[in-house]
């Protein structure tokens, strides 16, 4: 067989490598996501996310719980960071927490989807920069900051899904830490919807 005959015979089966990013299956993405109900300060993982305020000097809700559990040195480190703008994220040590790091992000007050999305995107970016493989998010902005729970959950899940599509090998597990029964019900429903 000449090379030409060979080529003609095989040209159908020889295809160039498809370098386009292959769409990940929902199952592959869902394998990296968990929901867990309870106190985020009890999680022994690489990083927990704090729904902080822009001073980064502590507050109520999950912020207060994290500072209480981490001990006063966390506030000392936070004081060196010059605060944090809405949608941004900054990392500190976890001190007395079982988590190695705390990623502080400042959610919007009220329903501002673009800003809430930035909180998740920037927290995940900071996590990646610090080789964080396991991370837990509280329901940012849905407490004192008054973002309605379900629309906030939609932003959280959509943003995390998109992140996984683009960065699946950079992370082992993303946990939605749900404190309230009502959030647990919302996430149960939405995770089914987004990952089936
Ligand atoms: P924000 O000011 O961003 O609204 P909050 O702390 O008031 O932040 O509320 C954000 C979410 O964190 C709410 O769903 C609240 O129920 C939840 N939360 C409060 N304490 C904890 C905790 N210890 N662990 C996890 N989530 C918590």
Radius of gyration: 21 Å
User: How would you describe the shape?
Assistant: elongated
What is the percent of helical residues? 40-55%
Could you give the count of β-strands? 6
Q: What's the average pLDDT?
A: 93
* Intertermini distance: 50 Å
- Spatial strand sequence of the major β-sheet: 1-6-5-2-4-3
Class from secondary-structure proportions: alpha/beta
Topology of this protein?
Layout: H1 3-10, H2 26-30, E1 33-37, E2 47-52, H3 61-70, H4 72-79, E3 89-93, E4 101-106, H5 113-129, E5 134-137, H6 149-167, E6 173-178, H7 181-194
Parallel strand pairs: 1-6, 2-4, 2-5, 5-6
Antiparallel strand pairs: 3-4
Helix pairs in contact: 5-6, 6-7
The chain binds adenosine-5'-diphosphate.
Structural summary, described in words:
Helices cover 41% and strands 16% of the residues. A six-stranded mixed sheet has the order 1-6-5-2-4-3, sandwiched between helices. Helix 5 (113-129) runs parallel beside helix 6 and helix 6 (149-167) packs across helix 7 (181-194). It has seven helices and six strands; from the N terminus they run H-H-E-E-H-H-E-E-H-E-H-E-H. The site of adenosine-5'-diphosphate has 21 residues, from helix 3.
Short description:
The chain is an alpha/beta fold and 196 residues long. The protein contains seven helices and six strands; from the N terminus they run ααββααββαβαβα.
Task: Output the keywords.
196 residues; 6 strands; alpha/beta; 6-stranded mixed beta sheet; 41% helix; 7 helices; binds adenosine-5'-diphosphate
């Amino acid at each position: 067989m000449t090379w030409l005959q060979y080529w003609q015979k095989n040209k159908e089966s020889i295809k160039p490598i498809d370098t386009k990013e292959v769409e990940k299956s929902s199952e592959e993405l869902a394998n990296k996501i968990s929901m867990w109900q309870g106190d985020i300060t009890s999680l022994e993982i690489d990083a927990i996310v704090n729904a902080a305020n822009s001073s980064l000097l502590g507050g109520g809700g999950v912020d207060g719980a994290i500072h209480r559990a981490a001990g006063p040195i966390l506030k000392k480190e936070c004081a060196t960071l010059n605060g944090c703008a809405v949608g941004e994220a900054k990392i500190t040590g976890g001190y007395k927490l079982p988590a190695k790091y705390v990623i502080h992000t400042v959610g919007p007050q009220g329903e501002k989807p673009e800003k809430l999305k930035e909180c998740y995107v920037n927290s995940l970016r900071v996590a990646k920069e610090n080789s964080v493989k396991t991370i837990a998010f509280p329901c940012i902005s849905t407490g004192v900051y008054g973002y309605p729970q379900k629309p906030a959950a939609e932003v959280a899940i959509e943003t995390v899904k998109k992140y996984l599509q683009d960065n699946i090998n950079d992370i082992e597990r993303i946990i939605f830490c749900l404190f309230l029964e009502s959030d647990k019900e919302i996430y149960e429903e939405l995770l089914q919807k987004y990952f089936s």
